[in-house]
Each structure stands twice: as C-alpha cells, then as structure tokens.
C-alpha cells in the first residue's frame, strides 16, 4: 500500500514535468499578410524553428507557456511568450528601411507633376504589368523629368516569339526602352575620369511634322577583362513539371553550359533547383571544374510543382554563405515564372525580394517558355533584386545574353542609375518621354518613388524625347542654357555615395536623313514599338514607314539588325495594312 502511494505521488510530481504541450500560431505582418520562414527561437530548449509557407507553426514544449524570439530579415524582432491554451498570432513590424524599399517604384518621373494632372488610361493585362504611356508635359510648368537606366532586354525577344508564332503581341508586353536596349547602337568610350559618356542629337520626327526628336545617348564604361572581380554565381533553376518542354528546361541547359565556358578559376558556381523538391544540386564549385559543372547541368530533369519562393530563399542563403567582398555576387534565376507553391502573387514576391535588396547580391532573371510565361513576375523580381531581365526564346538569344554580352549581363558598373533631364522652356513648349512607361498602380500610389536601375559593363542607353518647339522655325535661336541639361545620378557597386555626372545638350539641329545610321535605325525601332502598342501618338504611320527607315539605316553586316527587318514584315502580315485603333 505504501509502495502504491509512493508511486502515485511520484507520478503526480513527475508527469507535469514530462508532459508534452503544443505551441500553435502564425506569423503575420502589419497588413495581415502571412510571413513564411520567420525564425522562431525557443528559449527553454534553445532550438530554432521556422514558420511554414502559410506563416503557421506548431512546436512541442514541456511547458504550458514558453518564451520565444521571432525574427525575419526586414522586420523588427519580437520577444514574446506563447501560450499552449490558445492560437498565438504574432505580428512583425516592417523596419523603416524595408518599408521604404517596398513602396511602388516609378521608372520615369516628372518633378512636381501630380497624379491628378495626368491623362489616365488603364490598360489591362493578365501576365504583363499594366502600363500607362507617357503623355506630353508642359516645359514651362514641369521642365524637369527623368528615367531609370537599366539593361533589361526581355521585351524584344518576347515580341519576336509572338511574331514567330504568327500571333499578335499583347500591348503591355511592348516596352520601348527594352527594344532600344536590345541593339548595340553607337557605343562611345567614356573619358578616363568618368563612368559614362554622353552625346545627343536633335532632328525631325517622322510621325509628327510639328514635333522634333531629341536623342540622349549614355554609354557606360567597359570593365577591363583583367580587372573583372571574382564571381560567386548561384544558378537557381526551375525544374518543375511546367518546364518539361523543348523550349524550357532543355533550352536552359544549353544556355547555362554556354555560360560555363566563360568561367575562370577564381569564379565559384553553385546550383539550386526547385520542383518536386528544393535543394542544392551542386555545392559551390570552382570555375576550373567545367566538366563537373556541365555534367551537373545536363543531369537536371523536370517534375513536380513550382515552389519558386522556397527556391529563391535557398539560393540567397547559399549566395550569402559564399559571399565575396568586392566580388560579383549574383543569383541567376531561370524559369517560366509560373510559381504555384508558397508566395505566388507579385506583391508577395516583391516583398520577399526587397528583403535581400541591400545584401550586395544581384539578381538576373532569365525567362523561357510560352503559354504560362509570367513576364510581370520576373520583371518585378529583377527590378527589386537590383538586377536585369532577359527572355530566351532560342539558343541564339542564350548565346547573345550569356556569351557575347557576358560582362554586360553579369557585371555591374553602376547601381541606382537615374537620368534626369531639364528642358529649356525658352525654346521648348512641351515634351514627351518615349518609353519608360510606368505601371498603373505605381502612378496611383502617392508614396511611389523613383526606381534607379543597374547598369552593366559597356551598356549603351538611348533615351528619346518627342518635343514641340515654341517656334516651328528650324532656327531655334541661341539659348545660353542649351536645349536641355542632362544629369546622371548613380552609385558604384558596394558604395553608398551617390555620384553625379552631367552633360548639356546643345541647340544643334540635324536633318533626319543626315543623322548617323544608328539613330535613324533606333527611330524605326521606336515606330515599330509604337505601332505594336497602338500608341495614340503614332496613328499616322504604317508598317511601311517603319520598314523604309529601318531598311535605309540598318547595317547589312549586323545579323540582329537584319533580323529586325524580317520582324517588321511578319508584323505587317499578322496585323494587316490597316492599323487597329485603341478604344477611346
């Protein structure tokens, strides 16, 4: 009896200490969006847990309540006590710096011009960011405007894919500046003491006799091959079931094997895959082991869902673990963009990628495929990840992006680059920036900020403005301040100091037919884009007009320019001679 009583007493004493309880809950932000991968440090055991893809967690504990520290990059950490008797909701507040990064960003901006002053036109699109074409602005009221400089070129090859399939092109898939970026037009070597070189031309406007065109050309310095820093590259490759098509995973295999040929001994490559599972496919490997890297790429096979969010997080963790101070640290994401597991909306992906924006790791996005290709998601990831964006529609394009333009694609010479232009109101009545169109939601957001871009080695940017002069006389007079003042603001990689370089565009008029061929060819590209977009500013021109200028100005020895002529011919056949007009 005494023994039984003793055992009972022992059980009453010990059982509570050995009991297993369950701490349940979820982690959210201030807008009630769930947060996955939040780190949960359990103080009693010093074990670390993470919230799941839906922000939820479940942790066993020997206590009725337990203290935890919950943290996530970009958010203020929280120390709290969790109760087993209830479902615990933890709210993480965004750090100020991250909140600033998550605001809508503009790719072009006119100083002091308020949203209500704009002529609002909404263009809807299912997989492309809805854009609003820039309108004419009064030079007297708003003389200062600008645009982000970036090296994205995806729009051109994506348009080529549509035309190659004998189908029309979604208007929001046409981004004029990316079509112009696609061609290497009239590169100018910068002075020894500068990162950029400038030149400009003023000429006639083929689609409006009342207007003039101003071409502002900026060329970035080319990195000396002997001084190219070591690279820490993480290939993040989508191997989900949707990639099981000839123009998807097989194309990416060919593309990455081409890139491997450019690797040096001091470069490091890792491969992360996501599909039926997410994980490190190739551990960090020296560029000297090219055969090992190529075999690892060749052995990739498709299958499963598309947990893109988890893949991105894994790739960034790996890139951080191999971070090279002063080196080229970059994640190269290759996918059709069809994320269907974890965070899948553009807003959620944007929030996730901004948390890594200041880590010193760049992001290059390579899009492939058709049908479920998500241009808008990859565009957002590239811009928020301080990177660039290309679309690979064939092996030739892969070779162009990853071999011929290797340093331009993967080596940065300027961050947060933004071109600011002040127009002289004594000679200009109004002006319109061609291309660099903003998204509808960015224009509607009063907190939107200008988003600078990443500039690669040897990149050549051409910005075009349509101007209405105060006088239609070809002699615009002489103004002390010139036609326009150009300022380029940027940072060098790894440096927080904002640098500035300037240029004054002279009042020098050139007859259109006497312009250098590259600028006339660029004009034809702009006309081609305007017709595809059904631009209200180019309703008076036809495919023949664009073709005529391109034919006269193109370089027959340049295969890319020659191909453009065939694209105009295809577009003419698909759309017909009659232009489709936008609904008013």
Brief descriptors of the model:
single chain, 584 residues, alpha+beta, six-stranded antiparallel β-sheet, six-stranded mixed β-sheet, 15 helices, 27% helix, globular, disordered N terminus, disordered C terminus
Structure description:
Helices cover 27% and strands 29% of the residues. By secondary structure, it is of the alpha+beta class.
Number of helices: 15
Mean pLDDT: 80
Largest sheet: 6 strands, antiparallel
The computed structural class is alpha+beta
Radius of gyration: 27 Å
Strand content: 25-35%
Uncertain stretches of 5 or more adjacent residues = 1-18, 96-104, 114-128, 340-344, 440-448, 578-584
How would the global form be characterised?
globular
Number of strands: 28
Instruction: Please give the share of residues in helix.
Output: 25-40%
Query: What distance separates the N and C termini?
Result: 95 Å
How is the secondary structure organized here?
Blueprint (H helix, E strand, L loop, with lengths): L1 H17 L2 E9 L9 E4 L4 E4 L5 E6 L3 E7 L6 E6 L3 E6 L3 H6 L3 E2 L1 E3 L20 E2 L4 E2 L5 E5 L5 H11 L11 H6 L14 E9 L7 E9 L10 E8 L10 H12 L7 E7 L3 E9 L3 H9 L9 H14 L6 E8 L10 H9 L7 E6 L7 H10 L3 E4 L3 H10 L1 H5 L1 E12 L4 E7 L3 E2 H5 L4 E2 L2 E4 L3 E10 L14 E8 L7 E7 L11 H16 L10 H11 L5 H17 L9
Parallel strand pairs: 1-7, 8-24, 15-16, 15-18, 18-19, 19-20
Antiparallel strand pairs: 1-4, 2-3, 2-5, 5-6, 9-12, 10-23, 11-22, 12-21, 13-14, 14-26, 16-17, 21-25, 21-27, 22-26, 27-28
Helix pairs in contact: 5-6, 5-10, 8-9, 13-14, 14-15
